[in-house]
Amino acid sequence: MSPQQQTLKGKVAIVTGGTRGIGEAIVKLLASRGADVVINYTSDSSESLAKNLIEQVKTHGVKAVSVQADMGSLDAPKKIVNAAVEAFGKIDIIVNNGGVADFKPLTDLTVEHYEKIYNVNVRGPLFLVKESIPHLQEYGRIINISSVAARLGLAGSSVYASSKTALESLSRVWATELADKNVTSNSVNPGPVLTNMLSSLGPEFVDGMQKSTERAAFPRFGTVEEIANIVGFLAGPESQWVTGDVLSGNGGYLYL
Ligand SMILES: NC(=O)c1ccc[n+]([C@@H]2O[C@H](COP(=O)([O-])OP(=O)(O)OC[C@H]3O[C@@H](n4cnc5c(N)ncnc54)[C@H](OP(=O)(O)O)[C@@H]3O)[C@@H](O)[C@H]2O)c1
């Protein structure tokens, strides 16, 4: 391994929603750079994915554990932090990646829809970071996975889009509040990536997204690895002077 690849040796990373899509790619990248990883997931069907992933990342000479916890539940943040501390004794990097998307026009909005999305996308990350504080090390990293949806004003995205805007706002507050420990806190803003989440919104939505990429500088969907690479930069020592920021990963789909 080159020194560049081992920049995270000895670090402990938590990745929420780490079994599939962008989260899985982030787990692989952080492990390949030497970090031990706590992989969170929620569905029973992802248990075997988590097991396989743990075996895969071990080939980098790192350790990994998984923890099943629904980030939308009140006890998930503590459960994930306890798993990290029990396995590794500390936390260096938190990647708030796990998220849910669902689109509804204003007229169809319900409190249940709002709570389903906000509890996972906003409340979960907020309390995960809060619970981590006693264990979060000097020069730690908080990386929140936002979305271009936070700025697009897409019809039907009131709840999802605003949940991502809230997450970006939390990144900035934490950048200020945790600076005394030299912790940085940033958001990554992916454009459309063809994962299960995007497919779950339906073929018409995927089609629309595909067409919308045609106006981008690079007219295609992004890949999970392209997003993970940005997270890798933010997790590493070379990003110390970047905090409270939003890094786009969208191939020129949306210029901030
Ligand atoms: N794909 C895109 O186009 C796109 C664009 C912009 C931003 N994003 C953001 O990127 C992040 C990852 O999305 P993705 O596209 O990679 O989705 P994905 O392939 O559907 O994977 C979602 C991951 O999140 C986990 N997850 C879902 N609900 C959870 C919960 N309540 N508690 C804990 N984990 C949960 C899933 O765990 P299980 O496997 O256990 O279900 C899975 O590991 C999300 O925050 C999303 O908003 C995605």
From TrEMBL:
Span of domain Ketoreductase: 11-196
Protein's UniProt keywords contain NADP: yes
Presence of the UniProt keyword Cytoplasm in the record: no
InterPro entries found in the cross-reference section: KR_dom, NAD(P)-bd_dom_sf, Sc_DH/Rdtase_CS, SDR_fam
Domain of life: Eukaryota
MF GO annotations: oxidoreductase activity, acting on CH-OH group of donors
Keywords: NADP, Oxidoreductase
SMART domains given in the database record: PKS_KR
Protein family per UniProt: Belongs to the short-chain dehydrogenases/reductases (SDR) family.
The protein, known as: Ketoreductase domain-containing protein
